[in-house]
Amino acid sequence: MIVPIDVIDSSGTSVTDVDALRRQGEFLLERLHLDPDAELSIALVDEDEMTRLHVEWMGEPGPTDVLSFPMDDLTPGDPGGPRLTGVLGDVVICPQVAVRQAQAVGHGVADEISLLLTHGVLHLLGYDHGEPDEHERMFGLQDALLAEWRGTQAAT
Question: Would you place residue 1 in the very low, low, confident or very high pLDDT band (cuts 50, 70, 90)?
Fold first, then answer.
């Protein structure tokens, strides 16, 4: 299956495996029951650009780790049901922020960026974590998806 996933790296870093991000994007869309023709864009940006986006779109100062910009109003499909198609949207990740976060929690940068991509894709699909029940639902799915993704990577 080929999923139209664009990965654009203008971050100026070499900490991200762009091919791994593309493969993880394909994995996420498959597991979330989206059609192979669904489109996803992943952008890696530097801190200045992430700060600009964070201020412009969220009204908050400084860079953040990940922002999601949904396009079509897609939600996860049902297993065994028709797969949903359309333009999912953009996930914007700042690797420099991811490096600091990874160091703070004691895991690898690749794991942090993988977490951020998963988190961003879930936001594109309408998941949120503002309320306790939303937080539990979103982070439970995020943890399950990450565990499965990491399991597929360990097997290769």
Answer: very low
Helix, strand or coil, per DSSP, at residue 45: strand
Residues 6+ apart with CB under 8 A from 27: 148, 149, 152
pTM of the model: 0.90
C-alpha distances in Å from residue 132, one per residue of 38, 109, 119, 128: 30, 28, 16, 10
Q: How far is Cα 22 from Cα 69, in angstroms, rounded to an integer? A: 18
> What domain count does the chain have?
1
Residue 71: which domain range? 5-155
Angstrom distance (rounded) from CA 135 to CA 130 = 6
**CATH classification of the domain holding 82:** 3.40.390.30
Asked which of 27-31, 85-89, 137-141, 147-151 is least confident by mean pLDDT, the reply is 85-89
Asked if pLDDT for residue 128 goes beyond 90, the answer is yes
Number of alpha carbons in the 13 Å side-chain half-sphere of residue 50: 24
Summarised one tens digit per residue, pLDDT across range 11-20 is 998 877 899 9
- Residue-wise burial string across 105-121, b where 16 or more C-beta atoms lie within 10 A, e elsewhere: eeeebbebbbbbbbbbb
